[in-house]
Amino acid sequence: MKDIMIMNVKKIAFGAAVVFFSNFTIAQTLQDGIISVDSDKFAQAKNNFTQMVAKDPSAENYFYLGNTYLRQAEPDFTLATESFNKGLAADRKSYLNQLGLATVKLGKGDKNAISEIQKIVTDSREKDAEVLFRAAEALTLFEKNNSPDLAIQFLNKAIERAKKDVPAYYYYTLGDAYRLKRIPGDAMSAYDKALPLAKNKASVYTRIGTLWMAAQQWQQAKTSIEKAIATDPTYAPAYKALAAYDIKYQENAKATQDLINYTKYADEDPYTQLEIAKLYFTNEDYANSKMILDKIFDKINDPIKFKLRAYVNYADGQYAEAKQNMDTFVAQAEKSRVQPADQGLQGLIAAGLAKTETDTAKKTALMNEAQQKVAIAKAAKDETMKWDMELVKIAGGGASQSAVDAGPTNPQIEALKKQVAANAQDSDALYKLATAYQDAKNWNGAIVTWQKMSTLLPDWAPAYYSLGYAYQQATNNDAAKIAYEKYIATVKPAEVEANKQTLAYAYFAVAYLSKDSDPTKAKDYVAKSLQLDPTYQDAVKLNTEINK
C-alpha cells in the first residue's frame, strides 16, 4: 500500500510539474514576444506568436499575434483584424480580441471606438489587469486618435490589480499617456517607476531620452540615449532615437551610422525596413532610402509604400513619377490616412510640374494648387518638410557647394568656414559667414549659409529677409519672392513696429517681382508696403505705375 501511495504521489507530482513547466514555457514565450515587439524585432515577434498559436490556438495567443501587427510603425489593420477574428472564434467572449477589433477602428480614425473600448472594460468588470492594460495601450497607440485621460485611468487600475507584480511596461505606458497629455513631469515620474522594474533598462532610458527631446532639452536627451546604449548596445530603438537627435543637429554622417546600427539590431521585417527607409529620407540620404524601398517594395501590401516612393521621386526631381505614386497612395489608402503632409507634398509636386509646363493656363493652375496644398501642411504646423524652402529649391533656389567655392573668398570667409565646420550649431559664426559672403558678393555662399541659419533658427525672421536679398542679387527672382514672403509671415505681431521699414521693402520687393506675372498680388503687396511706410518713394512709383 505504501509503495502504491508513493507511486501515486510521484505521478501527481510529475503531472503537476508538467503543467507548471508547460505554463512556465508559455509565459516565457509570451514575455519573449513582448520584448521582441518593444525592441522593434517585429518579424521575430510575429514568428514567436505564430508558433504559440500553432501549439495552442487560444484566444489570447491570437490576440498577441494580432496586436503585433498594430504595434509596428505602419499598422497592418487587415492581418490584425484577421487574427482578432480567429481569437473570437476560439472564444466569443474574449475581451482582449474585442479590444483588438476596437483598436483597429480607432487606428482607422473612428473615434466611436473609444466608447467601445470603455464598454469592453466595463463588461470585464475591471477584474483583469491585462485587459485594463491593453485597453490603455490601445488608447495611447495612435498619435492622432487617442484618449490619454481614459488610458491613465485604466493604467492606474491595472497597476492596482497587479499589486506587487507590476510589469515595467505598465509604468512606461503610463508615461506615454502623460506625454500625449503634454504633462512631462508626470511622464518622467512614471518612467522613473518603470526603471527599477525593467529587465532591459535600455527600453526606459530610450523613452526618457525621447521625452527630453520632445521638451527640446537636447543635452539631457543625448545623455539618456547614451545610457540606453551603454546598458544594452543591441537595443535597436535607442539608435533610432539617436538618429533623430543627429538629424536635428544636421549631423548627417552620424545619423547614417545610427541608422546602420538600427538596421543591424532591429530585424528584416518589411515594415521595419520601411521605417528605416523613411528615416534615411528624413536624413536626406535619398540613395539609401531608395535602395531599401526597392528591396522591400513587393513584400509590402500597404499603400504607404507608394507615398514613400513619391517622396523619393520628388527628391530626385521626378515630378511626374511622384505624382503617379502619390495619386496611387491617395486612391488606395483610407481617407483617414491622408495627412496634411501628404497634401503638402502634392503641392510641391505641382510646383515641380509647373516648372516645365508651357501652357500658361495649366502652369497658373499648377502654381495655385501648389500654394493651396502647401498652405494646408503649414496651417497644420506640419514639419515633415521645410515647405517654403522646398518651394524655393523648386524655383531654382538651390546653390551647389561647387558654385559657392567658385565664388569670391577671403581670409575672413575661410576662417569662418572652419568655425562652422567645427560646430554646425554656432549661429553667431553662421551669421558672420553669411554676412562675409554678402560683403564679398559671393551670393551663392550667402544663399547656402542663410538657408542653414533658417534651418537652425526657423523662427528668426531676418534670416529669410537676407535670403531673399541674396536670391535677388543672384537674379533668382522666383526664389527671392518666396523667401521675402517667408520673412513677412515669420515676423511676429509684436515685432512689426520695430521692423516697419524692412517689412515695407519686403512687401515692395514681392510686388515688384510679381507685377508682370500676378498684377493682383502686386497691387495688394505694394498697398501693404505703403501702409507701413507712406514715404517709401519706390513703392509710391510702383503703385502709380500698376494702378494706371
TrEMBL record:
Please give the SMART domains that the UniProt record associates with this protein: TPR (SM00028)
The record's section on Pfam families has: TPR_6
Outline the TPR repeats, range by range.
202-235
Keywords (alphabetical) are: Signal, TPR repeat
Question: Entry's InterPro entries?
Answer: TPR-like_helical_dom_sf (IPR011990), TPR_rpt (IPR019734)
Q: Which residues form the signal peptide?
A: 1-27
What name is this protein filed under? Tetratricopeptide repeat protein
Q: Which organism is it from?
A: Chryseobacterium aquaticum
Q: What is the lineage of its organism?
A: Bacteria, Pseudomonadati, Bacteroidota, Flavobacteriia, Flavobacteriales
